[in-house]
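Our preliminary data section would be incomplete without showing what the modeling component actually yields. Below, a chain of 173 amino acids is followed by its predicted structure, encoded as tokens that our downstream tools consume directly.
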Amino acid sequence: MIILLNGPLGIGKTTLADALMESIDQCVMLDGDFLVATNPELSDGLEHLHSTIALLVPHYQSLGYKHFVIAHIWTTAEEIDDLRRRLINHDAEFRCFLLTLSAEENLKRINRRASVRILDEQEFELRTVAKEREMLNVRPGANLGELFDATAPPLVLVSEMLNRLGLSSSSNV
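Predicted structure:
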């Protein structure tokens, strides 16, 4: 199974992805921001990300991994479809979830995160989250993933996500 967690900065994609990875047997978590940052910035960061994921998935499958949780922001259905096409030959179910959270709670999480960071990126993050939230809300009905309310604590979210995926904790599915 390939699980995409989509949403703006600070919504909890990485936290949920880590928790899901720990709850599903034979699962790898791929953080889109980290993968893009591992190489010098290219003119098309999304192309770089998708081609990197398309290389990593079969590599991890050859090592026995069956499930993948990928966290990033995709702002159009075409971007998600591009990744799906690249991974379609990997014989895995493909699910995408758009994490939702009130703007106020999203900002609280960003502020909380900033309080424990060495580098002060809060101003950048506040500008970025505003842009990303706007991009995700531009076209109502755009297929950016199944809506998933990310308000609850991580363990509750993991339980709800596993239920929606039809998996149990430490599943061998």
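The longest helix spans residues 45-62. Residues 2-162 form a domain with the Rossmann fold fold (CATH 3.40.50.300). Preliminary results of this kind motivate Aim 1 of the renewal.
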